[in-house]
Design goal:
Keywords: mRNA processing, mRNA splicing, Nucleus, Spliceosome. With 239 residues, the protein is an alpha+beta fold. It folds into 3 domains: 58 residues, no CATH class; 94 residues, no CATH class; 35 residues, no CATH class. Helix content is 57%, strand content 8%. A hairpin with a 4-residue loop joins strand 1 and strand 2. The longest helix has 27 residues.
Amino acid sequence: MWLVCVDTQHRWRFVFGYKLVYVRAMLPSRLVHTSGDYCPNEARQLNHQEVVEEDKRNNLPTNWEARKRKAEWILQDEEKKKEAEERGENYDRVKLLHVEAVEAERLERKKKKKNPDQGFADYEQATFRQYNRLINNMKPDMAQYEYQKEKVGDAFYGGRNTILHGLHEDSKEGIDHMVEDLEKIITKREKYSRRRMHNDDADIDYINERNMNFNKKLERYYGEYTTEIKQNLERGTAV
């Protein structure tokens, strides 16, 4: 019985035997147990395998492990949510049963701080918020991810000279999911786009509904500058 040891200087040391041999290896410090007679071919194969694995890890993105853990957590969370729905339970309330009140309040504050509702600013910001909301609702499909990775090869991560056009094809499930999201958006828009109550005391400065909405927009942006002009026109003191 002998032991192969890779020291901090990246050399293989064979100890607990009748001889001491050093073999160069581009590997971190680790131990490999084996038995029998000394086999240089076996040691060379193990060395090569470890070098290949380490090279693969070095070529991964810097935050690969964190992204992988997050994707696995999301998959587990979705599975638990599905099980709770099958039992007829509210998953959000089930999760809170295992969280202290102080911790739940802290998470809620953090959630609101991370994605605050600042109201309508402009259409660009509204579109950006909607885009982030849609991608946060997307479920990671690790099986499809690995399939695309093997299919595309080196072009999967892309580069300056990589042409991605024509490499990806939309799946039927992805198209159905997009249609489902669009239908949800339309339904929600119809629910909240209700007619406002008419104010009988308000001034009538429009000729139709479209002109009324346009005047409201003008009032919202330029009302503080035109108020005095309107008052002068009503009093007949305008110059």
